Known about the structure:
The chain is built from eight helices and twelve strands. It is α+β, with helices and mostly antiparallel strands. The strands form three sheets. Strands 3, 6, 7, 8, 9, 10 and 11 form a seven-stranded mixed β-sheet that branches.
Amino acid sequence: MASKKKGFLDRYDGWRVRDVDAVFAVVPFVLRTRIDSQCMFEENIPIEKIESFIREHKEDMPDLTFMHVIMAALVRLVSQKPYLNRFVIWNKLYAHNNFVISLAIKRQNGVESIVKPEFELDDTIYDVTSKLAKLLNENLDVETTNEVDSTADILGKLPSFVLRPLVWLLFQMDKVGLLPKFLNAISPWHCSMFLTNVGSLGIGPIYHHLYEFGTCSCFIAMGNKMRVQTLNQDGTSSVRRYLGLKFVADERICDGMYFASAMKVFKRILTNPECLLQKPEEVIMDDGVRHFTKNK
């Protein structure tokens, strides 16, 4: 792992990315919003090995599900492909100084809420499962109201002539890194990635738009499991089972070749989930950020 002291150009939630190609310094001034910059792609992941992995580890990880495997794979992916943990705000490129996934959940009464687990980039699937289970246990109960819910409830009761300038002010404060830290901590839009499991609703994955407020550069939707007729190399056909994933990402954080190589790494992790049992050999830091130091 590595760390960096906050510099003059850094935000409290991110380091300024300065060592980039000239085109990446200019693009945020041309593509000014995340909506302008959205790129969309999908991956269908064979699930036989994941299902086998979950069965084999039900004793040591009784809470283990597909969601945990996907989240652990995302943590491992960013540990090897750090550009995916970048964000653009006010025409400037930054790298998150933590890794947080916003997760949409359904409480026992069907009411939707948001949790924000934070992970270390060298976390194993044991760490991810433990952290997520603890957070879900605290938030799934019908009687539970977390800070996200409480803040949304307060804002929702404000008259529009008060809420409109307040939200405008928060946008402006966030642009220059002056949004109060407690709001950043509870805001579902201030995260590295947003993940939702629409497969629990019995539908396939969807392309979900990004948000202009906050620092989220990637939205991932999990769909339901599906059966696909595939053609084998010997000319015969067989039915395989897949999990559909759809991604919407901000193209300003890295180029298409980097995205493509990252998806290959992601697929390789999910087709070999045993690698998630161990810490990565190395956590690769963003080489666009200056003055990283190694932690002892």
